[in-house]
Every structure is written in structure tokens, then in C-alpha cells.
Design goal:
Layout lengths: L13 H13 L12 H8 L3 H29 L20 H9 L2 H32 L5 H10 L5 H14 L6 H5 L6 H11 L4 H9 L4 H12 L1 H16 L3 H6 L8 H10 L8 H21 L1 H9 L6
Length: 321
């Protein structure tokens, strides 16, 4: 006698009926209205969350803190003389006076200072790109003995304050007879470890298959660098270029040591001399604010022109995306 373990042929089991009834209840019927979401849940979705409001508040405070000094500088430059020291000063000046720009331009000799500052900054930028791009490519894409140790030495130079190297650099420049010259303003900044580091980090995101394809196509190391890597790293190069220009343009300590002649004074040095050469006890702040606004124009132009490239380089999009 054997026991039949096969399923009965008399239709579906009770569990099958329950599953089908549940699926019919969940499935929307043709022409029926969609399920309504409770009002409490709808309101919870539409209203901004606490962290979002907190971020907006912090962002607003940061924007105000960053823009307020520039706005007050413009207000001081176009407002009446000496109203910047008044405790009852209004953000909106009572009258507009643009004569402070004319006084600042001639009293501070800002024309030659702007030309010197832009020329020196562009020369420093060109030398730094010529030296930093190959170095970053070597550290990121080439394999050689001692690469890690050499890169550590480069990063270690970032720990040395510029004030410590100023005196040895000045002694060297003076021994070469380049003191009080524009060449002396440029030579100590021929390369920068921070630029090498930033470019190296960006070039490390370039896939190895790109380098392998270039090698299979017969491209040498230098052609791979200038025809493949440099175009891919254009956002990072634009970012470090903006930073390099701004740092060189706003440098004050080194021009103060080297540029003794007013003819080669950089914009920060010209602004400092305009303040110290004032014959009155209280300097003319409208004139100083106008001079500061004039010498800041090249920095604003560079930043606005490279804004998109700068954002792409900072966020790291492009090569590795």
C-alpha cells in the first residue's frame, strides 16, 4: 500500500484564494481615482526640513560676511570724505563724489603699479605652469624609483613659512644683482608645491586606459602630456592659475624687500605707500578705498573670466567623471 503525495487536482488551495484576493485589493481598477495621501504627509513633504533652513541661514551669514567689506569699500570710495569714521554713517551715502578715484590714481601712481603687478603675476604664472605641470604628471602617471619619497619632500616644503625663506631668497637675488628689478620679483616664485599637489591629485583621476591607448598609438611621454593630459586637466589648470595669479598679485612681503624704486612698485606696495605718504594725521579713507577698488579690478576680472573652470576644477569634475 503506497501513499500518494501529489497535490490534489481539485482546484487551488485556500492560500491561493487569499493571495489573489489581496492582489485584487491592491491593484488599482481602471478608471478609479489614485490613492490619496494624507494631508499630514503631504505637508511634511512640502515643508523644508530643519537642516535645510539651517544651511540657508549659515549660507546667508557667510555671503553677508564675505560681501559686506567690499560693499563698504565701494560706499566709502563714492561717499563724502571722512564719513567712514562717523558712527552714524549710512550704508547709502548722502551724496556721490567720484573725485576720490582721480586723486587716488595720480597720488598713488596706480597706472605703473597695475602694469607691474599684472606683468609680474603673469610671468610667475607662466613659470609655475611650465614647472608644475610636468612635475605633477610625473608624480601622477609615471612609475620610477623614489617617487613617493620625492613627492613627500615636495609636500614638506608647504610646511615652511614664506617668511623664513624670504631672507635667503633676498640674499641670493642681491648676490645675482637682480634686486630692485622685475626679474627679482619673479625668480623666487618659479614653482609652487601647492600647484604641483593640486595638479597631481587631479591627474591621478585620469583612467590608466587613456595612457595605455596613447602608448599603443606611439605617443611619447611629452606628446602624451601636452596632447592628452593637459586638455583633460584643463579645469584643474584653470583653478590653480587663478589661485597663482591672485597670490602673486596680492603679494606684499617680497616686493617690500626687493622693489625699492617706486617705478616697479606692485599694487599692494603702491597702496601702502599711498597710506604712509599722507601728510595728515588721519588719512583720506575715501582716497584709500578708491585706490583699493582700482587695484582689485584685475583680480575680479580674472575670477569672473575663469569662474566656470574654477568651479569645475574645485569640484573635481572632468577627468574622472
Amino acid at each position: 500500500m503506497s501513499v500518494d503525495t501529489s497535490s490534489p487536482a481539485s482546484g487551488p488551495t485556500p492560500r491561493g484564494h487569499a493571495v489573489r484576493r489581496a492582489s485584487r485589493r491592491r491593484a488599482p481598477q481602471p478608471g478609479s481615482a489614485p490613492a490619496r495621501i494624507p494631508a499630514s504627509r503631504r505637508g511634511r513633504r512640502r515643508s523644508p526640513t530643519g537642516p535645510t533652513i539651517g544651511r540657508l541661514v549659515l549660507l546667508t551669514i557667510g555671503i553677508v560676511a564675505a560681501v559686506l567689506p567690499f560693499v563698504w569699500m565701494v560706499r566709502t570710495a563714492v561717499g563724502p570724505r571722512q564719513t567712514a569714521l562717523a558712527l552714524t554713517s549710512n550704508p547709502i551715502p548722502s551724496s556721490i563724489d567720484l573725485s576720490s578715484f582721480d586723486r587716488a590714481w595720480y597720488a598713488g601712481d596706480l597706472g605703473p603699479a597695475l602694469l607691474t603687478g599684472v606683468a609680474v603675476s603673469l610671468a610667475i604664472l607662466a613659470l609655475q605652469l611650465v614647472t608644475a605641470i610636468p612635475a605633477a604628471f610625473a608624480f601622477a602617471c609615471l612609475r620610477f624609483r623614489g617617487r613617493t619619497a620625492a613627492f613627500a619632500v615636495v609636500l614638506a616644503t608647504l610646511l615652511v613659512p614664506t617668511q623664513i625663506t624670504a631672507v635667503p631668497n633676498y640674499v641670493t637675488i642681491s648676490a645675482l644683482g637682480l634686486a630692485d628689478t622685475r626679474v627679482g620679483l619673479v625668480l623666487p616664485f618659479m614653482t609652487h608645491a601647492a600647484m604641483i599637489f593640486m595638479l597631481r591629485q587631479y591627474m591621478s583621476t585620469i583612467p590608466g586606459s587613456v595612457l595605455e591607448a596613447a602608448r599603443m598609438d606611439g605617443l611619447g611621454t611629452w606628446r602624451t602630456l601636452w596632447t592628452i593630459i593637459v586638455p583633460l586637466a584643463a579645469p584643474a589648470i584653470a583653478s590653480v592659475s587663478v589661485f597663482s595669479f591672485l597670490l602673486s598679485y596680492n603679494e606684499y612681503l617680497w616686493p617690500l624687500l626687493v622693489a625699492r624704486s617706486p617705478d616697479i612698485a606692485t599694487p599692494p606696495l603702491a597702496l601702502a605707500r599711498l597710506m604712509t605718504d599722507s601728510s595728515s594725521v588721519i588719512p583720506d579713507f575715501t582716497e584709500l578705498a578708491a585706490a583699493a577698488l582700482i587695484i582689485s579690478l584685475p583680480s575680479l576680472v580674472v575670477f569672473v573670466a575663469a569662474q566656470r573652470r574654477l568651479a569645475a576644477g574645485i569640484t573635481g569634475t572632468g577627468a574622472g567623471a
